[in-house]
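seq as requested:
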Amino acid sequence: MRATALAVLAVLVPIGEPSAHAQRDTEPLAANYRGWDYIVEKLVADGVDPRQVRRAFTDPRIEPFTGLQFSLYPRESSALYRGFTSPSSVALARRCKASHERALREAEERFGVPASVVGSIIHVESGCGRNTGKEVVLFRLARLAMANEPANLRDNITRHTETGYDPAIEERTRERGRYLENTFYPEVLATFQVSDRLDMDPLALRGSGSGAFGMPQFLPRSYLSYGADGNGDGRVSLYDANDAIFSCANYLASHGWRPGISRAEKRRVIWHYNRSDAYIDTVLALADRLDDGAAPAAAATGGKATQVQRKVKGKANARAPSTATRRTKKSAN
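struct tokens:
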């Protein structure tokens, strides 16, 4: 595997006597990547600066890769969202909407997405920016992207067939590994693109355990595609309320939100944001209460607004990211 990556690097170096600088460019593949060699080779092959890859995956902020256990049929509990429609949570959401009334109104005028819907989403996603996450985004995404690494895949096949070999179970394990890699490797690549655009260390980007960041909890590709400058400073920061609100509204509008759409159409749009019926129910119910000011019915759980680490923007709901990061065991079920 290492030899393959060296061959990839060779095409990046001019033919002839290699300079000292060119020799240094080949060093990442001779470094101790502490289990990350599979993804390092992919990144270098896809054009990420080898020196940048080396710095990232030898940095102590990236923990060694020791394996990722993933489930075959992940499911999300509706209980994750129950507290968001409690009286105390609705009060916090109203306060959030009032605090950012101007940006929400301007975003609604520009993108056609109601302030109540955007306000509900940023409340559910990050408590109106109070909890955007402290995890190293690159590490969390890279872990999930390693699901299909050959040794890790073999370990998962063994684990899922330990009570008796079943070719259907093996094939499902392979499908799940491919899905996780195909979902999260592009996000790893996009993390380096985000760091280049913002001129920042890729390891400085912090977010949730599922690799989402900022007030609207975007994954890196969503930031690149839908990030919108709401404060006019020429940059997009999802930690800035104006930018976050404009970006969230832009995302929804880009996926089909238009003034006057039906309830069913609203559900289809929000489904792109998070493919969870419970999530969609919560966002729409909360938006209704922000619109009409009605006193909400008491919920079974408290209304503390906390970050819900479980979504993949624009992808099928993969409960794997959230549960994996909340467990001490390196699991993704």
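Residues 1-64 form one domain.
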